Amino acid sequence: MENSDTKLTISSPTLPPPPPQASAEEPEAKKLKISTTTDDKECTTVTGTKIRYKRRKIAIFFAYCGVGYQGMQKNPGAKTIEGDLEEALYASGAVPEHDRGIPNRYDWSRSARTDKGVSAVGQVVSGRFYIDPPGFVDRLNSNLSPQIRIFGYKRVTGSYNAKKFCDRRRYVYLIPVFALDPCSHQDRETEKGNKVIGLVGNVKSNLKVEAVDVEAGISSNRNGALNSEVKEDVEVLVDNVNSKNDIDTVVPVQDEGTPLNGGSVNSSTILEEEKVNGVDRATKESKFSYGEKERERFNRILKYYVGTHNFHNFTTRTKAEDPAANRFIISFDASTTVLVDGMEFVKCEIVGQSFMLHQIRKMMGLAVAVMRNCAPESLITNALQKDVNIHVPTAPEVGLYLDECFFTSYNDKWKDSHEELSMKEYAKEAEEFKMKYIYSHIASTEHKDGTVALWLQSLNHRNYPDLHFVDEEAINDNKTGQVEVVTE
């Protein structure tokens, strides 16, 4: 039953009924305040007593380490963050029995959908929940794995929707510095003459080549030509860019015991030839460092993505003609490095209105390929063309996490009556969670499994033949059987 905060006039039994004018004015008084409460119902407490509570529309701020989960969004038969959170809300008394498993009944919405294995520090969801009695956050956390932490919640307007009111989202991808070194973990295809199965992304090519589509389990053979137009550098808008010389030292404090990823893939047989006394041969011999020159080049490469482009080549299941393929990237910056468990990473921060499935990982994949001289910078411009289909590498999911969701327009509109929706209040907790679970997991996974190192070995022209081609002349040579390999 809908509950209103508007006070109703109750007639005294000794007085005549109120005049019709008073009744007619009630709807006008109702508009003076936006109700943030609904459904005044009885709830059973732990002791068994019944107390009448009201549902409140709130936005919940939380973080999670995505390892072992099939992404954020609930999916039947899959272990997801949303599935665990929904059960915790029910177990905490925030969702009644008759609404369990039916999120539409409590206005559920999420600010972002993260892919399989992707983590988050500043995720936000909203809905109508029973938050009384006091201790709502503690009750939620007690019903969740340590991999998921609720920071707090804010009361919001009745019309609030975490997805629709989110203006932009910031993601971070931590890429090991050695991944940007062309001499580190070089292509092993020339030695073995076969493809690295399982590391290749979805094929989306219009060149006359055949490549394995691992995600779909099929092969693709398409013909066509690349557009050779080269795009000039775009002006980048950067939010809160750190100093170019900033280096953050991260000390992992992950608890000992079972690793978060529940095990590891045995890659020792693949990497052992690369090791010399526990050190990568390529790394030992290379003097590569992420200095000023390398930083400027990598940021120049990332700048190609800034602005409004057609990103159909950087996702799956989205056609070039689909309006959803057009996305706006506000900034893409890689000026900061962090040191985690003895390994140096480049912190790549990307801010955009919204992102599609695998989009950021594919953007990083092609950028790393260019940085390692596997492809020219002009290929990024080609990949952003609507009439061009190419096969873009997909970087591993382990280094990606959602850093923060922004609600600028909402905050400006409701600043006089509602709390600001931001991570400012939870910054310390979020940083501690990030260090303990996300950063330590990224570093330990690379130390143990060599996930990025293995992926780098797949960045070759057999797995990604489209990396060969730069312009129409190269394509014409390919049509006549003369393939031109571009190197820098």
From TrEMBL:
Top-rank lineage group of the source organism: Eukaryota
Span of domain Pseudouridine synthase I TruA alpha/beta: 302-407
Active-site residues, as the UniProt record annotates them: 115 (nucleophile)
Record-linked Pfam families: PseudoU_synth_1
GO CC terms, sorted: nucleus
Subcellular location: Nucleus
InterPro entries for this protein: PsdUridine_synth_cat_dom_sf, PsdUridine_synth_TruA, PsdUridine_synth_TruA_a/b_dom, PsdUridine_synth_TruA_C, PUS1/PUS2-like, TruA/RsuA/RluB/E/F_N
Annotated residues for binding of substrate: 171
Principal location listed in the UniProt entry: nucleus
Location of the region described as Disordered in the Swiss-Prot/TrEMBL record: 1-30
Biological process terms in GO annotation: mRNA processing; mRNA pseudouridine synthesis; tRNA pseudouridine synthesis
GO function terms (MF aspect): pseudouridine synthase activity; RNA binding
Family: Belongs to the tRNA pseudouridine synthase TruA family.
Protein name: Pseudouridine synthase I TruA alpha/beta domain-containing protein
UniProt organism field: Lupinus luteus (European yellow lupine)
